[in-house]
Design a protein that fits this description.
The chain is α+β, with helices and mostly antiparallel strands. It contains six helices and four strands, in the order H-H-H-E-E-E-E-H-H-H. It has a four-stranded antiparallel sheet, covered by helices on one side.
């Protein structure tokens, strides 16, 4: 469900009440990401709904990952972080089975100064350098990453071929 429906207001009514807080900011970010997209990353709203975006991150060189990311903007964005989930199944200690991502900047370290480009670059970096101390997935996966990196990467590549190709 879109953020506008969850909050009980429509996108247009929210924009008319708070044009500087949401609509202009998201439109500015859209223009920025379209004019100067980060390497290997694309993002755009789903149709004309600025609350829901689809993005793709090419698997970083040397990593076994490739897939899509789904954005849902909270009506309070940018004062609250967007909710971001992978649409593609990912074998990664910081991504749960529903695609939820554990990354500090989407939680305690969120700042309204962060842009979608910066968030996507951080997620791309997380694919290259997982943080096992904040693992969302079962302990088994964290141990594969920490104790048997070859097995971890082999399984991650298998999932990438199966789910992201």
């Amino acid at each position: 469900m879109s953020a506008s429906k969850r909050s009980g207001c429509t996108f247009n009514s929210f924009c008319s009440l708070y044009p500087g807080l949401l609509c202009l900011g998201i439109q500015r970010e859209l223009a920025e990401i379209q004019s100067s997209p980060p390497h290997g990353i694309s993002a755009q709203p789903n149709g004309d709904n600025l609350y829901e975006w689809t993005a793709s991150i090419l698997g970083p060189e040397g990593s076994p990952y490739e897939g899509g990311v789904f954005f849902v903007f909270d009506p309070a964005y940018p004062f609250k972080p967007p909710r971001i989930t992978f649409k593609t199944r990912v074998y990664h200690p910081n991504v749960n089975s529903q695609g939820g991502i554990c990354i500090d900047l989407l939680k305690d370290n969120w700042s309204p100064a962060l842009t979608i480009s910066k968030v996507l670059l951080s997620i791309s970096s997380l694919l290259t350098d997982p943080n096992p101390s904040t693992a969302l997935f079962p302990c088994r996966l964290r141990h594969h990453y920490m104790d048997d990196r070859e097995r971890y990467e082999r399984t991650a590549r298998e999932w990438t071929k199966k789910y992201a190709s």
